[in-house]
Amino acid sequence: MDAVLQALADPNRRTMLEILRDHPATAGELAEAFPIARPGVSRHLRVLRGVGLVDVRQDAQRRIYTLRPEALVEVDEWLEPYRALWRNRLDALHTEIARGKKARN
Amino acid sequence: MDAVLQALADPNRRTMLEILRDHPATAGELAEAFPIARPGVSRHLRVLRGVGLVDVRQDAQRRIYTLRPEALVEVDEWLEPYRALWRNRLDALHTEIARGKKARN
DNA sequence: TGGGTACGTAACAACAAGGGTACATACCGA
DNA sequence: TCGGTATGTACCCTTGTTGTTACGTACCCA
Description:
- Chain A is of the alpha+beta class.
- The first copy, chain A, contains five helices and three strands; from the N terminus they run ααβααββα.
- Chain A has a single domain, classed as Orthogonal Bundle (Arc Repressor Mutant, subunit A).
- A three-stranded antiparallel β-sheet of chain A has the order 1-3-2.
- Chain A is elongated and about 70 Å long.
- Chain A binds a DNA duplex through helix 3 and helix 4.
């Protein structure tokens, strides 16, 4: 969990996930999508691999990266107790609005 | 969004949110919960304020911090398209299991 | 009004993150 | 087997982050 949120802090890495959400991609394809040089992309991919956010399979000299969305489940779970709180707040807000409406009628 | 995920990358800050999830707390109370010195905590709180994850109100010389869970909604929304993907995967897995059961019967 | 309490900010040191260049590795095809 | 393609690793440099100490500010109370 810790490591996943850490990995998500970098905007480039998030964009990589976004690309992989649409389709698998080779390291080279991913690199083209960023203003930084290939080795940098390679390192970002290593981080994403490290926390299990992506999988790699080798196809000759290409490395094909695919998204592993399950790794984000833990973020979702981390969010859960907070979700309960903001939902309560929204409910309260809706109640407030409803009361306002009633008062106006 | 960007900034919120950035803020969440630090484990100390996440712990602070966890504490505030239970109850509002003063800067001093929060500081006691961490091995780091008060000024460090103060800066973490500034970050959390900056991204809207906490609110402060002043009570004499105390600063009382409260959680603002709504700020996490954007993380939840960022997660949404990925959630769709991992659910598909889980569904597929369940289907697979069901098929396995059928085959065994 | 002077002193204690509760915080925040400023300035600095130490370390980690992220980028670049150069190089190593592995594979394919002529 | 040699050259080209695709990619990762090593090393270095710069910048950002996180922690520390020292100091400033605001408030309460005797």
